[in-house]
Amino acid sequence: MRRRFSFIAAILLCLTAVLAGCGTKDAESVVKDLDKTLSSLDSYTGKGVMTLYTGQQPLEYQVEVSYQKPQYYRIALTNAKKDITQIVLRNDEGVFVLTPRLNKVFRFQSDWPANQGQVYLYQTLVQSILLDNARQFAVDNDAYVFDVMANYQNGSLTRQKIWLNKSDYAPSKVEVSDANNSVMVSVKFDSFKFGSKLEKNVFDTQKNMGTPAAGGDQATMASPDNGSNASASNNSAANGSNASAAADNNGSNSNSNSNSSSNSNDSSNAMSQNNADQPDNAATDDSANNADNAGGFSGDNPDNSASTDENDNGGNASDNASADEDSDSAMAPASGTFAGMDATYLPDGVSEQDSQSIVFGGTPGVMIRYSGTYDYTLIETQPKDMAVSATKGELIDLGFTYGQLSGDDVQKTLTWTDGGTVFRLTSANLPENEMIKVAQSVQGEMSK
């Protein structure tokens, strides 16, 4: 009798093992299913936490992702400590980077995200699995795990591990590592749903700007017809401004407005309201390039005034930045009323040359110069007025925020906003991957 019970128990165990094995597929089967899933993808939504390990302390960001076929995207990154959300939109009008709390909108001429992967986008993750023929595959409880090559703007990110739920292939976790196998970025999804029904206003620029910032100001479109802005830009060029200073003279839009306050105060509200409803005005106007210059970014149009300034000054970021101190309209020494942030990462052979308080576009700021193997200048300001601007710069994913890379072969400027501070990193010889590393290291340490 006991033998019979033992025999039955053994059969049940074998059946259990067989049934459990039926739910597990091999790598080839999963890859085929992923290809089909990607081809039939209509929409999805996801929420999770992204952690960056690029600084001295890990930084966490809440991530919300929405996608609607064929090319509508919405990504919201929220820094809980700073209580600031940045939104990236792609809709019929183009690609937008929004910071609602700062009343700031920038429009990019870009085919993002087709030209650069994103760790929180399902298409990016699946494509990396499909394209890596040397992929590694494992099974971890209820998930399939792929270890594949990483393909991101930051060249230091070399590999990534992707956990996909067995049931529907939804991502549950992603870890991106450097060449030393150290995890630099991780994303843990709290939820991920395919086939989400999304209203069109989810991807609407004005809807995502939400309520006005404190004080009731609407996001305003930089006026391409503002002669004072153009004049300020020309004066800056005449004084020998470099790309970063030209940008800040762009930022000196606020100075131009103050000089013509009797006119601008009466018209700014009307312009704010009209242009807030028409985010394409700067892009469609014949003088859109001047709108870029008024928008406060450095070298938004590499073929226009910023490029001219760069060429005239030989592309030496540090020397040009020093020369700009002599131009009151662009930059001048100031008392220490602004606490800047240091870059904790320095490329090999680079050291900090000096740091000083300045007035930049009518706004207190800090200028830090670095020299050595590479020469570059970091300018930090906290402008009060933010404007909508159309720009031809390249959209750069810094992980914690999005920046704009502008300029030409002579000199480039990487501009980004974090916590209300605008950062401008300008150099003639600092490679793009090193620019990204420097930018990522700025968010954390306060200057002494």
From TrEMBL:
Mind listing the UniProt keywords for this protein, alphabetically? Signal
UniProt xrefs under InterPro entries: DUF4367 (IPR025377), LolA/LolB/LppX (IPR029046), Sporulation_related (IPR052944)
Compositional bias per record (Low complexity), positions renumbered to this chain: 222-301
- Locate the region Disordered: 206-335
What positions does the domain DUF4367 occupy?
Answer: 382-442
Ranges of Polar residues compositional bias? 302-316
The signal sequence is: 1-20
Pfam families per the record? DUF4367
PANTHER family tied to this protein: SPORULATION PROTEIN YDCC (PTHR37507)
Q: What is this protein called?
A: DUF4367 domain-containing protein
- Give the originating organism: Paenibacillus lycopersici
